[in-house]
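Side project, low priority. Logging it here so it doesn't get lost.
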Amino acid sequence: MIVLAAAAALAVSLLPGTLTDVLAQTETDAAASQTDTVETPDPDQLVTVEVTRALSRVITQSRGVAGRVEPARTVDIAFQIPGQIFSLDVEPGDRIREGDVIAELDQADFNLAVDRAQASFDLANSEFERASSLAQRGVAADARLDTARAQFAQADVALREAKRRLSQTQITAPFDAIVARTFAEEYVNVTSAAPVARLQDVSEMRIMISLPEELAAVARSAPDAFDIVASFPAVPGYTAPLVQRSFATDADPTAQTYDLEFAITGDIDPRLLPGMTADVRIAVASDENHPQSVLVPVSAVDTTSRTDPSIWVYQESSGQVARRTVRLGLPVDDEIVVLQGLNGDELVVSGGWWRLRDNQSVTVSGL
């Protein structure tokens, strides 16, 4: 009995402390639960974002690109027959006129060939006339006349061929040009089609440039939308307006650029030579009827986790935002042109768009 009473007294003495610990733990868990409830954001809580109005205006945008000067055409001149060069009448850098002699072969053998062909032609002609006379008088058979006629025709072809080969011993300029370089020297034997000189047609000088795809697309669809001028580091004080001549639609696979060729209009400075570099300035043409462009701050463009750029548009009537996919143009200072997706005079989110979802209600600042 004494043992049972002692055990009961020990249990009673320990009971208040145990209850106190249990109650304390329960209050702690309740407080933690309340804290978690307070820290969880309310999905309907309004987010404050900065908005800016998209503006529509005519922009005078320009860009500089590097180019190189090229002649209207470059031709490598060669003899059509083999032989020994007797004279080379040009040097690199010479300006020549159409029809000027560039080089000649030794003509001795070709003159002899013409003389032989001429003798054969004269003989065949005499035989043909004699056979014709005899046939008219009925003395000779028609077969003899046919043979004489055929021999005369062959002799005529041989003579014309010999004269043609003689004319090919001389190379003349096919157009007004600059001699870029020569590939042979006098008294050297050359084969047919071996280049002798390189000619550059400078009657019209060209400028070759490469444009990125966003500019190339506009230049292709609206070539009159730009004013294009070129200046030249090697020719100070000379500026030339340009006009488009050709557009290569085969893009460079690495740089994704397109080659465009422009012609220099007006008088060409004689100091300008093929191969020189050009600084080409491309500016939007100043036209009162030029369409306006929609511009937004660069900070308004949302490019996170999407292939195509987008912009968050704020609807004043509902107080909500919606994501809209856009097509962008060129940057202008701290703004960027929106080619498609905005109509202008709309409110766009320019700060805080990374916290948004479609059709979310927001409060705005910046107005």
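Brief comment: The first strand starts at residue 47 and ends at 53.
Revisit when time allows.
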